[in-house]
Amino acid sequence: MSLVERFVVGVDIQSFSSRVARRQVVLQTGLDRMLDEAAWSAGLSRELWTRHPGGDGEVAVLPADVDLLAVVRRFITELDIRLTDHNDDHDPGARIRLRVAMHIDVVTRPGPLGYAGPALTVLQRLLDSEPVRDALAAAPEANLAQIISDSLYRKAVLPELGGLRPRQFRQVRVDLPAKEFHETAYLFVPGESPAPRAERPDGRPQDLSAAWSPLPGFPFVMPALRTERRPPKPRPQRLTFGKESAAGAVEVVEPVEPTPVDLGPGVRQAMREVREALARGEVDLADVLTTRTLLVAVGRDGKGWLRESDGPLLADALLTELDLAWSEFSGGAWGFRAQRARVRGLTLTGPREFRELSVALGWRAEKTETIPLYREFVRRASADASFYPTLRNPERENYPSWHDEWSPTVMAVHVRLQQWER
Record's Pfam families (predicted)? Predict the structure, then answer.
C-alpha cells in the first residue's frame, strides 16, 4: 500500500432528490455533457479522470500532472458558461445548480473499490458543508458555488497566476463537530466577486480551414474542402417573393444590395472570410464561416450555436450581406432569400418545424430520416433545393448533443428571416 498526492473534485446538483426520476435522468445527461465540454475547453480530459458517479453528481481523482490553474479557474469558468446557457434554455424544473468542491491531498493507490484516503474524506466534507450550501442559497441567480480547501488555496490561488487572485475568494470555516472536522476553506461564486475571463490554451490553429479552432487536444478534423465546386448558375430573374413557377421549378431570387450599416470589425472580418472562401470555390468552408459570422454578430462564437432568443439580434444588414454573397456565387439558387422562398408555405415558430424545413431545403429526404455528420451531409448539396447555408458547426459534432444545438440555431435564423426586410 502506498500514498500519492492527487487533485480531487466533487460536484453535486442542488435539489436533485426532489425531482422525479424522468427529470433526474435529463439532469444527469446534461451535467455529464457540460462537464465534458468544460473540461475540454479548459485543456483537460475527463477520460483521464478516475470518476465515481453518484446519482446527483460525481467525485473524481485527477492525474498527477494536472494543471491546478486549469481546474481551479478555467474549468469553473467554462462550466459556469455552459450552466448559464442550459438554464436560460430550459424551464425551471430542468435548471442545474451545482456545488463544486476541490482539494489536493494524498490518496491510496487504487484498491478493489477504487481510491481511498484523506483527500476524498476532506473533499466530501467540503462538498456537503453548510458554507457552500448557504452560498448557493444566498445567490439564487448563480449557477454554481465553488469551495476549495486551504491547502489548494495556498498552492493555486496565492501565487496569483492564471487570473486567480485571493480577493476573488471568501474565507469560511467548515465545522463538523460530530465528525471531528474543523477546517478553513475558501468560497467563490461567479458574479458575487470579480471573476477573470477564462484563458484559452495556446496553440490554436489560425488557418481558415478550421473555421473554429478545435477544443484543446480534441481530435477534430474539418471535412475536406472541395474547391472549384460551383453550382449550376441559372439566369437571375426578378421575381415576386414566394411566387412559384408553373412547372414547379426552383425560383431564382435576385439579391438586393444591402444598405451600409456598421456591423463592427469582428463581423466585417468574418464576412470577408465568407466571400474569400466562396471566391475560391470552397463552398463547405464558406458554409461553416457563415455560421460563425452569425455567432460573432450576437456574441455566441464561444458557444458554437444560437438560442431562439438570439434570432431577433441578427441585423437586417448582416442577413442581406450574407445572402448577397451566396446569391452572387450561385446565381440566386442559394442564400437566405432563396431559402425563405422555398419554405414560404411553412409557419415557422420554433424547433417543432425544423424537420419540415429540413426536407424543404434538401437537408433530409423525409422528416424521419437521420441526418448524417457534416462530411456526408454536404454530398447531397444541390442548387435545386436552396441547400446553403446550412448553419451547421461541424466542431460541435464531437458531442452527442450536436443536433439539439443545430436545430435551434437554424430555427433562430429562419424565424428571424420571416421578418427580414419586411
Answer: GUN4
Which phi and psi angles does 13 have, rounded to 5°? Answer: -80, 130
What are the cell numbers at 27? 439532469
CA separation for the pair 57, 100 (Å, rounded)? 10
Confidence of residue 27 (pLDDT cuts 50, 70, 90): confident
**And the C-alpha cell for 9?**
473534485
The domain spans of the chain are 3-188, 221-417
Task: Output 297 or 403, whichever has higher pLDDT.
Answer: 297
Digit-coded pLDDT (tens) for 232-276: 444 333 333 333 433 344 444 444 444 444 467 888 898 999 999
257: left (phi over 0), alpha (psi -120 to 50) or beta: beta
Q: Output the nine-digit C-alpha cell for 400.
A: 452527442
Backbone dihedral angles phi then psi of residue 396, each to the nearest 5 degrees: -70, -15
In what helix (H) or strand (E) does residue 30 lie, and over which residues does it extend? Answer: helix 21-41
CA distance 316 to 257: 12
Q: Per the structure block, which three cell numbers stand in for 285?
A: 468552408
**Range 107-111 contact pairs with CB under 8 angstroms and sequence separation of 24 or more:** 107/3, 107/4, 107/5, 107/6, 107/8, 107/61, 108/1, 108/2, 108/3, 108/4, 109/1, 109/2, 109/3, 109/4, 110/50
Chain mean pLDDT for the chain: 80
Phi-psi region of 5 (alpha: psi -120 to 50; beta: other; left: phi over 0): beta
CB 198 within 8 A of CB 77: yes
Long-range CB pairs of 168-176, under 8 A, 24+ apart, other chains included: 168/193, 168/194, 168/195, 168/196, 169/193, 172/131, 172/147, 173/131, 174/125, 174/126, 174/129, 174/130, 174/131, 176/125, 176/129
Residues 6 or more apart whose Cβ sits within 8 Å of residue 15: 97
pLDDT of residue 215: 31
Class for the domain spanning 3-188? alpha beta
Q: How, if at all, do strands 98-108 and 144-149 pair?
A: parallel
CA distance 220 to 213: 9
